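Hi R.,

Here's the chain you asked about this morning:
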Amino acid sequence: MAHGTREGLLVSTRSTQSPGRSTGGEKQHWEEEEEEEEEEEEEEEEEEEEEEEEEEEEEEEEEEEEEEEEEEAEEEEEEEEEEEEEEEEEEEEEEEEEEEEEEEEEEEEEEEKEEEQPPPALTYAAQQHERQQH
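And the predicted structure, written out as tokens:
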């Protein structure tokens, strides 16, 4: 009897003689062989199914890991954006405070100058008064 494999399964090739025409011993031997082959095929099918299930589980785990990594990356991005926004707001507030301080300093300087110098109308009037007295 020749044995070959087809698609990973054990296949037995037999003579054209049908089991019914054989003697009782041959028939029993043929039936035992047939049962063994069926059991082997079933075992192989079960193994293939188990392998497929394992592969599917691995794929699912990989997908879950990828999703988790993507979520973590998105969260990190959002946190970075929030930090950048906060920094920008702080910078803007500092700039506004600096501008306000500069404006206040300028106003104080102008007030001091005005206090030191009499208004131009008074100086002109004072000059006229002096001229008239001379």
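Strands lie at 2-6, 9-13.

Let me know if you need anything else.
M.
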